[in-house]
Design brief:
Length: 198
């Protein structure tokens, strides 16, 4: 009598066919996910800049004191500092994010602060300890532009949020290494509008 053979496994052809189908699906979907992750960094950085502006406005209103939103273009950091503590010198911000007090110059007294735009061109901002700090991940500041059209592409600059919640209008362009960018335009009341390429 002949023994009956038990069939319970996959043949080599079936396994190879399944592996080929999975490989094709991965080849099609992985580039889409990678592109989505790159765009996600830019979207997250845009949200961070917008939320820091809103936070600066809120803190200015709540504490009834001017606050400075400092854009450290070289290190892609955002710092929120009480404007009374802000001093303008040519020294960089410390690597740990702390700010060293060097002199007692008030922001509007011979400090280089443009009183029309409330922006400090071409210098670093130092003073007290920042209340809040954020670093953009995977993207950087291309420029910060005042309402009068002056662009800052390196160093640090700041936008002062007054105690009534207003600021001088400004624009910030953030970009990644591939050249994709977002331009964030903020009006005098702190409302932000974003536009750009993905």
């Amino acid at each position: 009598m002949r023994e009956k053979r038990i069939v319970g496994g996959f043949t080599l052809v079936e396994v190879l066919l399944v592996m080929a189908i999975v490989g094709i699906m991965a080849a099609v979907t992985v580039p889409v996910f990678v592109k989505s992750m790159r765009g996600n960094r830019l979207r997250t950085a845009s949200r961070t800049v917008v939320m820091m502006g809103k936070y600066a406005r809120t803190m200015s209103l709540l504490k009834q004191k001017e606050h400075a939103l400092v854009f450290d273009i070289n290190t892609s950091k955002l710092l929120l500092v009480p404007a009374a503590d802000v001093l303008v010198v040519n020294d960089p911000v410390n690597p740990d994010g702390s700010i060293v007090k060097v002199s007692s110059t008030a922001p509007n007294q011979e400090s280089g602060l443009d009183t029309d735009t409330n922006m400090v061109p071409g210098t670093s901002t130092t003073g007290g300890v920042p209340e809040f700090t954020r670093k953009l991940d995977g993207v950087g500041f291309a420029y910060v532009e005042s309402s009068k059209g002056s662009q800052q592409t390196k160093g640090s600059c700041m936008v002062v949020y007054r105690s009534n919640g207003t600021c001088s209008p400004y624009s910030v362009k953030i970009a990644d290494e591939r050249g994709a960018f977002t331009i964030i335009s903020v009006d005098a009341l702190g409302s932000a509008k974003t536009e750009g390429s993905q």
